[in-house]
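User: Please predict structures.

Assistant: First:
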Amino acid sequence: MELKFLASYFLVLLAIFYSYKEKLGIEKLIIINSIRAFIQLLILGYSLHFIFKLQNPVFLFLILLVMCLFATYTAQRRINLEYKGYEIAFLTITLSSFLVLFLLIGLNIIDIKPNQVIPIGGMIIGNALNTYTLFIDRLKSEIKNNIDIIEGFIALGATLKQALYFVSKQSIKSSLIPIVNNLQTVGIIWIPGVAVGMLLAGEKPFKVMGYQLTVMYMMLAVALFTAIFGYLFSYKYILRYTER
């Protein structure tokens, strides 16, 4: 029964076939990442059995820090900022993620328990990673497309931060589109995994709604903080990224 999920790999094979047929050049990436996902989730399944037994909060936050380091590595590989790329990614992802997590703890929404801190923290860090890569990628594109206007502002006496203001607004807005779309369609088109899992476990619908709203709101908050921190940490060096 447990091995039935392997049949779903047929969907991956479809993606590989299409990539090969249309010469997209991402067949190898799909194969490697699909196998990597299987291995990582297998390891996670066995690791959580031991992680959920941890009682010392220090160990829990160290695990989250390791997640942030891996997210930093992943983000840098995707967007490849050659100057202070790892530093900017780490500061942005870590600060935004821990800020939202500590707010949830401070507001007594979640407790410092392994079965709450680790899954919630993982969702927060994952969303911070996605937002960061979307934001930086869009910011680089906006600067390349508007470099003459930016240089004109600077020539007229504007600071770099002032000259980049209009492109930063567009980049932040674009990086928030996925979570805003989710907020708009949740419960009608998109049925989140948290809600499905709790309903299947027999929880009352009202309680399920409360948990899912918490998840959605924290995702919006971490996305916003990530975009803001990403800009604050990168704007002094962003022109270097667009010169290449």
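Second:
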Amino acid sequence: MAEPLYYRSATELSQLMRAGELSARETVSAHLERIDEVNPDVNAIVTYLPEAAMEQAAAADQRFASGGWDGPLHGIPVAHKDNHLTMGVRTTFGSRIHEHYVPELDDLVVERMKAAGVVTLGKTNVPEFVAGGHTFNDLFGATRNPYDLAVTAGGSSGGAAAALAAGMHPIADGNDMGGSLRLPAGYCNVVGLRPSAGRVPTYPASDGWCGLSVQGPMARCVDDVALLLSVMAGPDGRSPLSLEEPGSRFATVAADGLRGRRIAFSVDLGGTIPVDPEVRRVVERAAHTCREAGAIVEEACISFDGAGECFRTLRAWQFEAALGDLFDANREWVRPSLYENMLAGRRLSGRDVGRAARLRTELFHRMREFLETYDGLLLPVSPLPAFDVDLQYPASVCGVQQPDYLGWMESACHVTVTGHPVISLPAGFSEAGTPLGIQLVGRHRAEDQLLDMAKDFEQRTRHAWTRPRSGASVDHRPGDGQRD
């Protein structure tokens, strides 16, 4: 039986609209009805523009009737992440400081999505200043996981991922520094791609050179991630790291992408992090799936020595550079842990930052050399199943105490500092029924190969097509953590 419109892929919706079998108004209306049904419980979309969206859809239909076609995302509804600037639409960054901020320009990714024909539904929830792997803030509250309203949807693109999983929109824009695309994708049974720096150019940006944080696509399937990447990617003179290759090269994904590949896997990043037994089993099953697909699979991993120091130093440095003055001027509105992150950056010496830059370069070359032998490295995207939505973060993983809200995220943060593209994929479910994901690291600037392997994995496992029950909520699982 065909899925309802709100669970159709963007690729299929586009084909139907291009063939004249579906209108933009029908498409957008179906998604608005779905938002009205499920968003009050999930709290994924925090600025909502139904009337404006229907006006945009009607205008798209009128252009189509006159022989026009806006682009590859013609009539596709999307709610943009609430730290991506949207001209004329409130952008809060999940903070009371920006509660009423309305930008006068679009982020470059939003600009490109609009030029490709998207219809803007609103904005999706984020943690305060997009800091952390759990989406909650004092302005809008917490986003809940559509598969179990009692647990986290992840973060910082938690609102985007939860909206995808619940059928509120078929594609989403996001960004990833320490796992902000990958962690929520893993917890919400969707796909999130962190591209190589420069693949998706960024503008405006307070630091256009670092590349620790990148923007990228998220969707319910690999084909839609590739479609959105084809729109987001490509050169732009305003972004100094911008790569010259056109985004159109990513528009289609090949089949059989795992056959003949050499895939390494590690359940714990080479013994670097504690990992829950349920997550270990999912990673091992994912490795077995790759082997069944015709890949040569071996248990192996690079050394992530120095990755934690590198990430924490560079993140704190960027926090202070980008937010220090704003936090000082509005200290009463800033979560104490965020203010301390900024102060950690202020306390750094030039020697500290220089050492982190050297470590980052070493980690890049370790991964680069490792992937001269292997085509991909398969890892857990998170070390534990989704935790209680009322916790700020899990205080321990498998009995190992975590120092702060970054501690449990090292499975994603460590990969960040290697500078390689990585995709988060649905890989199964916990005993409690919540999604678990894996991440697959690919060769530098080889997103096309990574997408090919990801699609083969997706087609063989079919986890991505397991939808949440409407209004699903089960009892909270006991656990320890830092409560609000």
